[in-house]
Amino acid sequence: MVSAARFRHRVFTGTHLERMEQIMRQVCADFECEPAEFNGESNHVHPLVNFPPKVALSHLVNPLKGVSSRRLRTEFPGLARHYYRANKPWSGFSFAGSVGGAAVSVLRQYIQQHNRPV
């Protein structure tokens, strides 16, 4: 999955990304999913999640974005200046796809190559 910050603003710091990873891990646990990798940059994130076939991808993506949005707004009120119109940090789009046949090691390597901001 790839989720971009609203207007692709460079808003996330390392602290934001660390907290976002914790939040997304909690949401994954609620869905009996396993977060395999997480990284991001100042304007987008890349969570890689192993999820069972009984979980619809859209039913996982919506809570990941929704819960992280609510908690980030509560815990980091200073982020609001970057998304003043919609009152949420995420853009309206995300890319999420299943990669059942791809090597997970290749995906992990791609995600790990992204540099977290300081």
Could you explain how this protein is built, in words?
It is a single chain. The protein is α+β, with helices and mostly antiparallel strands and 118 residues long. It contains three helices and four strands. It has a four-stranded antiparallel β-sheet, sandwiched between helices. Helix 1 (14-30) crosses helix 2 (57-75). It is globular and about 40 Å long. The two termini are 23 Å apart.
List the helices and strands and how they pair.
Elements: E1 2-5, H1 14-30, E2 34-41, E3 44-50, H2 57-75, E4 90-95, H3 104-112
Antiparallel strand pairs: 1-3, 1-4, 2-3
Helix pairs in contact: 1-2
Radius of gyration: 14 Å
Shape: globular
Please, how many helices? 3
Please give the number of β-strands: 4
Q: In the CATH hierarchy, what is the architecture at level 2?
A: 2-Layer Sandwich
How many domains make up the coordinates?
A: 1
By helix and strand content, what is the structural category? alpha+beta
SSE sequence, one letter per element: EHEEHEH
Largest sheet: 4 strands, antiparallel
Distance between the termini: 23 Å
CATH superfamily: Transposase IS200-like
Outline the low-pLDDT stretches: none
CATH top level is Alpha Beta
Query: Overall pLDDT, averaged?
Result: 82
CATH structural fold name: Alpha-Beta Plaits
Helix amount: 25-40%
Strands of the biggest beta sheet: in what spatial order?
Answer: 2-3-1-4
**What fraction of residues sit in β-strands?**
15-25%
